[in-house]
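tool_call: predict_structure(chain=1)
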Amino acid sequence: MAPPMREQSYRLATYARGHDGPRAGIVVDEALLDVGAVLAGDVAKSPGTPPIQVLQVLEKWQRFHPLLQQAARDRRGGKAGADATPVRDVRFLAPILYPGAIFCAGANYRDHVAEMSKALNLPAEPDPHEVGLKPWHFMKASAGCVRGTGELIRLPSYSKKVDWEAEIAVIIGRECRNVGTDQALDFVAGLSIVNDLSARDHLKRPGVKIDSPFHFDWVSQKCFDGALPFGPWICPLDDIDDMENLAIRLWVNEELMQDSSSSNMIFSVAEQIAHLSTRLTLRPGDVIATGTPAGCGTPRGIFLKAGDRVRISVDHLGTLINEFGD
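tool_result:
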Protein backbone atom coordinates (compact mmCIF):
# COMPACT_ATOMS: atom_id res chain seq x y z
CA MET A 1 0.00 0.00 0.00
CA ALA A 2 1.31 3.46 -0.91
CA PRO A 3 2.08 5.77 2.02
CA PRO A 4 -0.46 8.50 2.77
CA MET A 5 -0.09 11.92 1.20
CA ARG A 6 -1.56 15.24 2.10
CA GLU A 7 -3.87 16.78 -0.48
CA GLN A 8 -1.70 17.34 -3.55
CA SER A 9 -0.84 20.98 -4.10
CA TYR A 10 1.11 21.18 -7.36
CA ARG A 11 4.18 19.88 -9.14
CA LEU A 12 6.93 22.31 -10.16
CA ALA A 13 8.24 21.70 -13.68
CA THR A 14 10.29 23.10 -16.50
CA TYR A 15 8.34 22.97 -19.74
CA ALA A 16 8.40 24.12 -23.34
CA ARG A 17 5.59 24.66 -25.79
CA GLY A 18 5.95 24.93 -29.53
CA HIS A 19 9.07 26.89 -30.40
CA ASP A 20 9.19 28.72 -27.08
CA GLY A 21 12.16 28.26 -24.79
CA PRO A 22 12.08 26.61 -21.35
CA ARG A 23 10.16 28.17 -18.52
CA ALA A 24 8.78 27.28 -15.09
CA GLY A 25 5.27 25.92 -14.70
CA ILE A 26 3.14 24.21 -12.09
CA VAL A 27 1.09 21.12 -12.83
CA VAL A 28 -2.32 21.12 -11.16
CA ASP A 29 -4.15 17.90 -11.96
CA GLU A 30 -4.15 17.76 -15.80
CA ALA A 31 -3.46 21.45 -16.33
CA LEU A 32 -0.26 23.48 -16.43
CA LEU A 33 -0.04 27.07 -15.20
CA ASP A 34 2.88 29.27 -16.20
CA VAL A 35 4.75 30.43 -13.10
CA GLY A 36 5.44 33.81 -14.66
CA ALA A 37 1.71 34.39 -15.04
CA VAL A 38 0.93 33.08 -11.55
CA LEU A 39 3.51 35.38 -9.96
CA ALA A 40 2.85 38.35 -12.24
CA GLY A 41 1.76 40.53 -9.32
CA ASP A 42 4.71 39.52 -7.13
CA VAL A 43 7.65 39.69 -9.54
CA ALA A 44 8.75 42.94 -11.17
CA LYS A 45 9.10 42.44 -14.92
CA SER A 46 9.92 44.72 -17.78
CA PRO A 47 9.45 44.17 -21.53
CA GLY A 48 11.90 41.60 -22.81
CA THR A 49 12.48 39.98 -19.41
CA PRO A 50 13.21 36.25 -19.89
CA PRO A 51 10.64 33.73 -18.62
CA ILE A 52 10.95 32.67 -14.98
CA GLN A 53 12.95 29.47 -14.51
CA VAL A 54 12.60 26.81 -11.82
CA LEU A 55 15.97 27.72 -10.33
CA GLN A 56 14.67 31.26 -9.70
CA VAL A 57 11.66 29.81 -7.90
CA LEU A 58 13.92 27.67 -5.71
CA GLU A 59 16.14 30.63 -4.88
CA LYS A 60 13.08 32.32 -3.32
CA TRP A 61 11.32 29.15 -2.24
CA GLN A 62 10.01 30.38 1.09
CA ARG A 63 8.37 33.35 -0.61
CA PHE A 64 7.08 31.71 -3.78
CA HIS A 65 5.98 28.27 -2.57
CA PRO A 66 2.94 29.55 -0.61
CA LEU A 67 1.90 31.66 -3.61
CA LEU A 68 2.05 28.64 -5.90
CA GLN A 69 0.08 26.59 -3.38
CA GLN A 70 -2.62 29.28 -3.38
CA ALA A 71 -2.69 29.33 -7.18
CA ALA A 72 -3.29 25.59 -7.16
CA ARG A 73 -6.14 25.99 -4.64
CA ASP A 74 -7.66 28.76 -6.76
CA ARG A 75 -7.45 26.61 -9.87
CA ARG A 76 -9.25 23.72 -8.19
CA GLY A 77 -11.80 26.09 -6.68
CA GLY A 78 -12.70 27.55 -10.05
CA LYS A 79 -11.42 31.02 -9.26
CA ALA A 80 -10.11 33.18 -12.06
CA GLY A 81 -6.35 33.15 -12.35
CA ALA A 82 -3.58 32.37 -14.78
CA ASP A 83 -4.62 30.70 -18.00
CA ALA A 84 -4.09 26.94 -18.03
CA THR A 85 -2.68 24.70 -20.74
CA PRO A 86 -3.48 20.98 -20.93
CA VAL A 87 -0.40 19.00 -19.93
CA ARG A 88 -0.69 16.97 -23.14
CA ASP A 89 0.14 20.13 -25.10
CA VAL A 90 3.51 20.80 -23.45
CA ARG A 91 6.87 19.08 -23.36
CA PHE A 92 8.48 18.52 -19.97
CA LEU A 93 12.22 19.11 -19.71
CA ALA A 94 14.48 18.28 -16.78
CA PRO A 95 13.01 20.11 -13.77
CA ILE A 96 16.12 22.26 -13.20
CA LEU A 97 18.20 23.64 -16.08
CA TYR A 98 20.71 23.19 -14.51
CA PRO A 99 21.55 22.26 -10.89
CA GLY A 100 24.56 23.99 -9.41
CA ALA A 101 25.73 20.72 -7.85
CA ILE A 102 24.63 17.10 -8.06
CA PHE A 103 25.64 14.78 -5.22
CA CYS A 104 25.04 11.03 -5.56
CA ALA A 105 24.98 8.69 -2.57
CA GLY A 106 26.83 5.42 -2.99
CA ALA A 107 25.99 2.10 -1.31
CA ASN A 108 23.01 3.55 0.53
CA TYR A 109 20.34 0.82 0.30
CA ARG A 110 20.58 -2.32 2.39
CA ASP A 111 19.16 -4.57 -0.32
CA HIS A 112 21.47 -3.13 -2.99
CA VAL A 113 24.58 -3.47 -0.83
CA ALA A 114 23.69 -7.10 -0.08
CA GLU A 115 23.01 -7.79 -3.76
CA MET A 116 26.29 -6.28 -4.97
CA SER A 117 28.36 -7.95 -2.23
CA LYS A 118 26.98 -11.32 -3.30
CA ALA A 119 27.59 -10.62 -7.00
CA LEU A 120 31.21 -9.63 -6.30
CA ASN A 121 31.83 -12.49 -3.83
CA LEU A 122 32.49 -10.06 -1.01
CA PRO A 123 31.60 -10.53 2.66
CA ALA A 124 28.44 -8.90 3.96
CA GLU A 125 28.89 -5.23 4.80
CA PRO A 126 28.17 -4.08 8.38
CA ASP A 127 25.77 -1.22 8.98
CA PRO A 128 28.03 1.84 8.54
CA HIS A 129 26.44 3.46 11.60
CA GLU A 130 27.86 0.65 13.73
CA VAL A 131 31.44 1.25 12.57
CA GLY A 132 31.32 5.03 12.70
CA LEU A 133 31.08 5.73 8.97
CA LYS A 134 29.41 8.78 7.44
CA PRO A 135 27.35 9.04 4.25
CA TRP A 136 29.45 8.74 1.09
CA HIS A 137 28.81 10.74 -2.08
CA PHE A 138 30.35 11.37 -5.47
CA MET A 139 29.39 14.11 -7.94
CA LYS A 140 28.02 14.18 -11.46
CA ALA A 141 28.35 16.88 -14.08
CA SER A 142 25.25 19.04 -14.44
CA ALA A 143 24.43 20.19 -17.97
CA GLY A 144 26.35 17.32 -19.55
CA CYS A 145 24.55 14.60 -17.61
CA VAL A 146 21.06 15.96 -16.96
CA ARG A 147 18.28 14.99 -19.38
CA GLY A 148 14.50 15.19 -19.11
CA THR A 149 11.76 12.62 -19.28
CA GLY A 150 11.04 11.44 -22.81
CA GLU A 151 14.52 12.30 -24.07
CA LEU A 152 16.57 9.74 -25.99
CA ILE A 153 19.73 8.82 -24.09
CA ARG A 154 22.62 7.83 -26.32
CA LEU A 155 24.72 5.10 -24.78
CA PRO A 156 28.43 5.99 -24.56
CA SER A 157 30.39 4.33 -27.34
CA TYR A 158 33.19 3.32 -24.97
CA SER A 159 30.96 1.20 -22.71
CA LYS A 160 29.14 -2.11 -23.20
CA LYS A 161 27.83 -2.31 -19.62
CA VAL A 162 25.63 0.69 -18.89
CA ASP A 163 23.47 -0.05 -15.85
CA TRP A 164 20.33 1.60 -14.45
CA GLU A 165 19.83 2.97 -10.92
CA ALA A 166 16.42 4.35 -9.89
CA GLU A 167 16.79 6.96 -7.17
CA ILE A 168 14.85 9.54 -5.19
CA ALA A 169 16.33 13.00 -5.69
CA VAL A 170 16.24 15.69 -3.00
CA ILE A 171 16.05 19.30 -4.16
CA ILE A 172 17.54 21.92 -1.84
CA GLY A 173 15.38 25.01 -1.32
CA ARG A 174 17.39 27.05 1.18
CA GLU A 175 21.09 27.73 1.61
CA CYS A 176 22.44 25.59 4.41
CA ARG A 177 25.75 25.03 6.11
CA ASN A 178 26.55 22.94 9.19
CA VAL A 179 22.97 21.93 9.91
CA GLY A 180 21.96 19.09 12.20
CA THR A 181 19.77 16.15 11.25
CA ASP A 182 16.90 17.62 13.26
CA GLN A 183 16.94 20.73 11.06
CA ALA A 184 18.02 19.28 7.72
CA LEU A 185 14.59 18.73 6.15
CA ASP A 186 13.73 22.40 6.71
CA PHE A 187 16.13 23.15 3.84
CA VAL A 188 14.44 20.85 1.31
CA ALA A 189 12.08 22.20 -1.36
CA GLY A 190 10.95 18.87 -2.74
CA LEU A 191 11.66 15.49 -4.25
CA SER A 192 12.04 14.16 -7.76
CA ILE A 193 13.36 11.07 -9.60
CA VAL A 194 16.73 10.42 -11.24
CA ASN A 195 18.29 7.48 -13.04
CA ASP A 196 21.94 7.39 -11.95
CA LEU A 197 23.30 5.60 -15.01
CA SER A 198 26.64 3.82 -14.57
CA ALA A 199 29.18 2.47 -17.07
CA ARG A 200 30.11 -0.56 -14.97
CA ASP A 201 32.99 -1.61 -17.21
CA HIS A 202 34.81 1.67 -16.52
CA LEU A 203 34.91 1.76 -12.74
CA LYS A 204 38.64 1.00 -12.70
CA ARG A 205 41.53 2.35 -14.74
CA PRO A 206 43.39 -0.43 -16.56
CA GLY A 207 47.07 -0.74 -15.72
CA VAL A 208 46.77 0.99 -12.35
CA LYS A 209 47.42 -1.06 -9.23
CA ILE A 210 44.36 -1.88 -7.15
CA ASP A 211 45.86 -0.29 -4.02
CA SER A 212 46.64 2.96 -5.85
CA PRO A 213 44.60 6.04 -4.86
CA PHE A 214 44.28 6.68 -8.61
CA HIS A 215 42.67 3.31 -9.36
CA PHE A 216 39.07 4.49 -9.91
CA ASP A 217 37.69 6.36 -12.92
CA TRP A 218 34.58 8.17 -11.70
CA VAL A 219 34.22 10.36 -14.79
CA SER A 220 34.10 7.48 -17.27
CA GLN A 221 31.77 5.47 -15.07
CA LYS A 222 29.36 8.22 -14.01
CA CYS A 223 29.69 11.36 -16.14
CA PHE A 224 28.99 10.55 -19.78
CA ASP A 225 26.49 12.62 -21.78
CA GLY A 226 22.95 11.89 -20.57
CA ALA A 227 24.10 9.97 -17.49
CA LEU A 228 21.38 11.48 -15.27
CA PRO A 229 17.80 11.41 -16.58
CA PHE A 230 15.85 13.63 -14.17
CA GLY A 231 12.15 14.34 -13.74
CA PRO A 232 9.40 14.63 -14.63
CA TRP A 233 8.96 17.44 -12.05
CA ILE A 234 9.50 18.39 -8.39
CA CYS A 235 6.99 17.35 -5.74
CA PRO A 236 6.97 19.80 -2.79
CA LEU A 237 8.17 18.06 0.33
CA ASP A 238 5.16 19.11 2.38
CA ASP A 239 2.92 17.07 0.06
CA ILE A 240 4.51 13.89 1.44
CA ASP A 241 3.71 12.49 4.87
CA ASP A 242 6.12 9.54 4.94
CA MET A 243 9.31 10.10 2.97
CA GLU A 244 10.82 6.95 4.48
CA ASN A 245 8.23 4.64 2.95
CA LEU A 246 8.07 5.49 -0.76
CA ALA A 247 7.84 2.61 -3.23
CA ILE A 248 10.52 2.71 -5.96
CA ARG A 249 10.09 0.66 -9.13
CA LEU A 250 11.99 0.44 -12.40
CA TRP A 251 11.07 -1.43 -15.57
CA VAL A 252 13.24 -2.19 -18.59
CA ASN A 253 11.02 -2.89 -21.60
CA GLU A 254 8.11 -3.52 -19.18
CA GLU A 255 10.09 -6.12 -17.20
CA LEU A 256 10.16 -5.13 -13.54
CA MET A 257 13.79 -4.91 -12.42
CA GLN A 258 13.78 -2.78 -9.25
CA ASP A 259 10.97 -3.06 -6.72
CA SER A 260 11.88 -1.66 -3.32
CA SER A 261 11.19 1.18 -0.91
CA SER A 262 12.95 4.14 0.61
CA SER A 263 12.56 2.24 3.91
CA ASN A 264 15.70 0.33 2.81
CA MET A 265 17.80 3.50 2.84
CA ILE A 266 20.84 3.23 5.13
CA PHE A 267 21.58 6.92 5.70
CA SER A 268 18.38 8.96 5.81
CA VAL A 269 17.82 12.08 3.74
CA ALA A 270 18.36 14.19 6.88
CA GLU A 271 21.66 12.42 7.62
CA GLN A 272 22.88 12.98 4.07
CA ILE A 273 22.02 16.68 4.06
CA ALA A 274 23.57 17.22 7.50
CA HIS A 275 26.81 15.49 6.47
CA LEU A 276 27.16 17.27 3.12
CA SER A 277 26.50 20.60 4.81
CA THR A 278 29.62 20.10 6.95
CA ARG A 279 31.70 19.91 3.76
CA LEU A 280 30.30 22.84 1.79
CA THR A 281 27.33 25.17 1.64
CA LEU A 282 24.33 23.59 -0.07
CA ARG A 283 22.41 26.06 -2.23
CA PRO A 284 18.92 26.26 -3.73
CA GLY A 285 18.64 23.96 -6.72
CA ASP A 286 21.39 21.59 -5.61
CA VAL A 287 20.35 17.95 -6.05
CA ILE A 288 21.13 14.95 -3.84
CA ALA A 289 20.50 11.55 -5.42
CA THR A 290 19.94 9.40 -2.35
CA GLY A 291 21.02 5.95 -3.55
CA THR A 292 19.52 3.03 -5.44
CA PRO A 293 17.89 -0.18 -4.18
CA ALA A 294 18.41 -3.76 -5.34
CA GLY A 295 17.59 -4.77 -8.89
CA CYS A 296 20.39 -3.27 -10.97
CA GLY A 297 21.59 -5.10 -14.07
CA THR A 298 25.09 -5.97 -12.86
CA PRO A 299 24.16 -8.94 -10.61
CA ARG A 300 22.12 -10.38 -13.49
CA GLY A 301 24.70 -9.65 -16.17
CA ILE A 302 22.12 -7.58 -18.05
CA PHE A 303 22.90 -4.10 -19.38
CA LEU A 304 21.17 -1.44 -21.43
CA LYS A 305 21.21 -1.63 -25.20
CA ALA A 306 19.94 0.52 -28.05
CA GLY A 307 16.17 0.31 -28.30
CA ASP A 308 15.58 -0.27 -24.58
CA ARG A 309 12.95 1.75 -22.73
CA VAL A 310 13.33 2.43 -19.01
CA ARG A 311 10.43 3.55 -16.83
CA ILE A 312 10.85 4.60 -13.19
CA SER A 313 7.95 5.22 -10.84
CA VAL A 314 8.16 6.51 -7.26
CA ASP A 315 5.12 7.00 -5.03
CA HIS A 316 3.73 10.53 -5.42
CA LEU A 317 6.73 11.72 -7.48
CA GLY A 318 5.54 10.67 -10.94
CA THR A 319 7.11 8.60 -13.70
CA LEU A 320 10.41 9.13 -15.51
CA ILE A 321 10.67 7.50 -18.95
CA ASN A 322 13.62 7.35 -21.35
CA GLU A 323 14.60 5.37 -24.40
CA PHE A 324 18.18 4.48 -25.27
CA GLY A 325 20.06 4.54 -28.53
CA ASP A 326 23.55 4.29 -30.00
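agent: Residues 102-325 form a domain with the Fumarylacetoacetate hydrolase; domain 2 fold (CATH 3.90.850.10). Proceeding to next step.
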